[in-house]
Amino acid sequence: MFMDKWIFVVVLAFAGGTVGFYSGIPLGTLLGSLFAVGGYQFARKNLPTFSFRAKKVMQSIIGGSIGLAFTTETFQAIQSVWKVALLAPIAHLILAVILTWVLHRIFEFDMVTSFCSSAPAGMSEVTIISEEFGAKMPVVIMVHTIRVIAIVVSVPLLVLLF
């Protein structure tokens, strides 16, 4: 029975990811699987969750996948973009601190949830960090899901406009 639920999660994720992929929307595979599994979990609340250890294994695989993108050309590009590579994360962190303050003071989120909700990072990394520090996971996940959707929708439109 337990294994059947895991098989169902994988099938549901692949089905949603496939629909997302063929939809042609940016990050369609990610968003399709997220909405398929998330929607089912919202409606039924009976799917298993990954253990902390399993999440670390997946994080290692994602990190390895990103690492495969590094080439000689990647490191050669550092010479021309190093100023931006330093400035962008500093600007992101400054904006994250401001948003953390807004979420804490105005919306009354606790500080950990506020910072994790406004952290400029990927969803998989943020959820792992949030869990480690005891943030309110449903809040963090919802804020980042909306952020990803807003970026996926707005960036292509902005690129077309400019």
What does this protein structure show overall?
- The protein has about 160 residues and is an all-alpha fold.
- The protein has a domain of about 80 residues.
- The protein is about 80% helix and about 0% strand.
- α4 runs antiparallel to α5, α5 packs antiparallel against α6 and α6 runs antiparallel to α7.
- The longest helix has about 35 residues.
- The radius of gyration is 18 Å and the shape is globular.
- The chain starts with a helix and ends with a helix.
Notable traits:
162 residues; mainly alpha; 0% strand; membrane; AbrB_dup; AbrB_fam; transmembrane helix
Element layout with pairings:
Elements: H1 2-23, H2 28-44, H3 52-67, H4 72-105, H5 111-118, H6 123-133, H7 137-161
Helix pairs in contact: 1-2, 4-5, 5-6, 5-7, 6-7
Rounded Rg: 18 Å
Tally of individual helices: 7
Give the class from helix and strand content and strand pairing. mainly alpha
Give the percentage of residues in beta strands: under 5%
Helix-strand pattern, N to C?
HHHHHHH
Sheet of most strands: none
- Overall pLDDT, averaged? 90
Show unreliable segments: none
Distance between the termini: 53 Å
Shape: globular
Q: What share of the residues lie within helices?
A: over 70%
Find the count of extended strands (DSSP E, 2+ residues): 0
